[in-house]
Amino acid sequence: MPKGYLNLVLHAHLPFVRHVDRADRLEERWLFEAITETYIPLLQCMHRLLEDGVDFGMTVSLSPTLISMLADPLLQSRYEKHIDNLIRLADSEIVRTRTDGAMNQLARTYRERFQEIRAFYHIYKGNLLRAFGELQQAGKVELITSAATHAFLPYVRTDEALRVQIATAVDVFRAHFGDGPQGIWLPECAYTSRVDRFLGEFGIRYFFVDTHGLTTASPEPVFGTFAPVLTPRGIAAFARDEESSRQVWSSEHGYPGDFDYREYYRDIGYDLDTSYIAPYIHPDGIRVNTGMKYYKITGHDHHKELYNFDHAREKAAIHAGNFLFNRGQQVEFVQGKMGRKPIITAPYDAELFGHWWFEGPIFIDILFRKMHYDQSTVKAITPSEYLDLYEDFQECELSMSTWGRDGFGDVWLNGSNDWIYPALHDCETRMVRLAGRIDHPGDIQRRALNQAARELMLAESSDWAFIMDSKTTVDYAVRRTKHHVNRFRALAKMIEDDQIDERYLVELEGMDNLFPHMRYEIYRNPRHHVRSRKNWGDGQRPLRVLMLSWEFPPMTVGGLARHVYDLSRHLVARGCEVHVVTTAIGDYPLDELVEGVHVHRVQVLQPDGGEFVHFAFQLNLMMLDRCRKLIGDEGYKFDLIHAHDWLVCQVATTLKKTYNIPLISTVHATEHGRNAGIHTDVQRHIHHLEWQLTYESRRVIVCSTYMQREIERIFSLPWDKIDVLPNGVDRKLLQPPDLDGVLSKEPYARQDEPMVVFIGRLVQEKGVQFLLSAVPSVLCEFPRARFVILGKGPYQGELMAQSARLGISDHVTFTGFAPDDTRNRILCAADVAVFPSVYEPFGIVALEAMAAGTSVVVADVGGLSDIVQHDHNGLKVYPHDPESLAEQLKRLLRDKEFAKRLSAAAEEELVRFDWMQIAGNTIRLYEKIVGSTHGLSAEERPLQTPVVNV
């Protein structure tokens, strides 16, 4: 059993240095050198550890700007040329040094190294984010984020702009890795208490500070830096351990300065004649590092001896052993005094390992192997794992601090760079004003607002101020700051004058193309968008909504979970306070903040077949108990209750009557519609609960005109009690994490094989049986076609048997449940998405297919009929009709250009289904209901205490 833990943290960041205008910009080499010398060597190291079964754990922060560049097809293709050029250089060096045995062997080793790096790059098709993601999925690496453009957060003036840096970072991370990050690397470890509430809002559990950031806290931390402390808002702060930092960071006293290690400053890009090295350096003759360095540090004078890979590896092993021994000594010294196992936090810039300290990845590899075979004293751990070990952490107030010179902000604000802040602060204020003024922009106006946000954020990067202070590439940093500020100002003026130059906008969108799913609305001050209710005694507080739903991610059975998740977080983005009470699942917290949404989970046994109605009854009891505590014990005053579907009918109606809180409900589907009538006692019970919920609700929301007609008819609801608000689609969630030009269809189909995809629950009303009946006809014309059925459900066995009877099993794949990243990737890669439902209140998955750029074929039923216009943005088929379905599928597979035209038309119309717009319409409905309480009697108005005991 270990006596303590090592928390190794690597922060990987580069500023956004993508330059679309030229392929030979020196600054892009920063990225290419980091990929070659740091990112791939570290990934190779960690993947080897994983393959060898070594138990290791570490944290890697990937800044959003770095993520954006690693995922960029242009930069991926340019890096390919860069590594190919290095291999050609190594080949040339083998020839040049053929008469010098030792140097020739070094050249051969470099060539082998470059070839392995290229091979690794090709395995992941240029997208290294997939390699990082695999390590996270294996549970060995905890990936975290940093602020969106690495802004120096204490010097961001407005709360809105500070919030955007956190919100965008979380959005980018989720888009590429599926889930939100557990932690964040605050740029330059610069902490200010202003960030706390935004970290909490977006579900961040922890961050890192420099040593003095913790030791100067109030009260003084009882465990020093050997345990995290909590801020007043409950966010954990881990502090850098000085001793472990000094042993690695210091070039004089630390390991990297050892004489057997490779000398960074002797590179053949500078050492060799220009006539020879010219093809491998900058086209203008500017000398650059090539990464081929033949000498070791040797000593402090100019004399350098040849580098020896084997000797350097031996020294790295010695240093890894020494590092582990010293951490063991620290743990032994403090462990008995703490009453818990200490944690030693060792954070470093990732680029130290491999780029500056060539042997750094070897050091990490050997360190983890040594810990694996001797876990008696120190074991590797991630911050999240350590936080889960204990429940009681000391709460402290932390002062502003950084890990920069003298521990504060002097590096980023001094005579060399102070001129940038008046401009940045003016732009911030202007951006907030623009975002608050424009509620419903047109397409070009929205694009201009989003691009203005990108330009402002790029100008805020801490890298430019750092470069100005360090006197390195100062002209470049000054130029970048001015360019982004001026671009922002130009766009802001166009927006204010309502005269947007689209050619200029397109040019900027091509140059500064990071954060493709940027939403300018997050710059809004919520106070500007939530009207106060004069009849309520709490002034300007946000509209507070209690939302009830048995599903909420990751508890996902159907489309309800996605709907409630998207609606609730966009309501928060528009200024509401939303509390969702839902079902507990797995080890997820019973109470947490998910993108600003307060989620409260209740524990109840999961449904099992015929026990589902009993499960729903138990769920209502547990939800009622939790809501009573929220309202009574915790003092929340809810303006209204929003209930989703019959499963929460009893708790919703009880709360309405007990506390006199207005109730609205959303009916997503009906038991009558699912079963083409009511036939059994269980169906009659559910049907009655659906009716009761609509009867007790002040307003009833449905997602389509079809559903409006259905509930008018079967529940005898007056038409003016119903509001039609469509489901929405969040396009950024439909982008797969490996957008690299051609999307892979594997493992379900080869690239040249037509792929048809269905996504949904496997129940009779989804109509998959008719799709299977259509497959033989499609195969007659397209014998290599593949059909992928993503989803699970009670009908799966019968569908698989049908597939076998038809002799099409070799062409049909049932995937079962697929995680969002797999689901989205396959949806984007498909040639056609098909939804042959016989009952479909809305059909959000058809919207998702459209957002993914995939052409759709749908049955002409329910809400699908509202979404798809035949031959315009998709194709419709007769329900229950395999022949009609087969013919429309073949039309799309025959004519690729026709399919593209349908997809393009579909994508243009998705603005109707924008969640921010839907959230705005929902808020207007909420306010209409809340405002209507003004005319109620005293007995009918919302109370602070219950009318009766429940």
UniProtKB/TrEMBL annotation:
Domain 1,4-alpha-glucan branching enzyme C-terminal positions: 424-523
SUPFAM superfamilies (UniProt xref): Families 57/38 glycoside transferase middle domain, Glycoside hydrolase/deacetylase, UDP-Glycosyltransferase/glycogen phosphorylase
Domain Glycoside hydrolase family 57 N-terminal residue range list: 8-302
Domain Glycosyl transferase family: 749-908
Keywords: Carbohydrate metabolism
Family matches, as PANTHER family: 1,4-ALPHA-GLUCAN BRANCHING ENZYME RV3031-RELATED, 1,4-ALPHA-GLUCAN BRANCHING ENZYME TK1436
Name of the molecule in the record: DUF1957 domain-containing protein
Species lineage: Bacteria, Bacillati, Bacillota, Bacilli, Bacillales
